[in-house]
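Q: What structure does this chain adopt?
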Amino acid sequence: MRTLYHLWLSPFCRKVRVVLREKGAEFEMSVEKVWERRTELLAMNPAGTVPILIEPDGEIIADSGPICEYLEDIYPEPALIGTAPLVRAEVRRLIAWFDQKFDHEVTENLLGEKFMKRFMGLGEPNSEAIRAGQTNFRYHLDYVGYLAERRKWLAGEEFSLADIAAAAHISSLDYIGVVPWENYPSAKDWYARVKSRPSFRGLLADRIPGATPPKHYADLDF
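A:
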């Protein structure tokens, strides 16, 4: 059995979890408290980060990008990066948008400051970073809505890793109740469709000790 080392609210771990489910791949999960810097963790991934995927034969793949590309190679159906070159380019562009730009401008400022700092005992949140994250979030939700109004899914006609990457970040933020859904109906409609996919149910069932999500978090008709 393959094992995924993960953290509950890490959007990068969530992205891999959804891809594994979309591919129909069996796996088990092990929570890794990366701040403890276990020797075993550093042996698996010197960067000291998750996700880390351990294959049944002991092979190790670290980081969500390589893991998702690897899973796409060994499980070509359903295709989550697309088949046509231009589609694949657009999917990868949007993956980079959410895993780099969105993560830096929104996830780190909101999830990192409002939740992870307290969870890891790293002191008081930075109010300026939180305000910046809230401002940036509105811009990004506008962009998600813009794409959703013009395409069936974010990168085009097919559900793809672009949708998974975006939803992984947004679901982490939704767990801590900071998504202003009422102001972004197009983004909300898109996210409701993602939430309804069977591959997403595991994320919606997550419950972190000492942190309860808002009531709408697991509601498909929120």
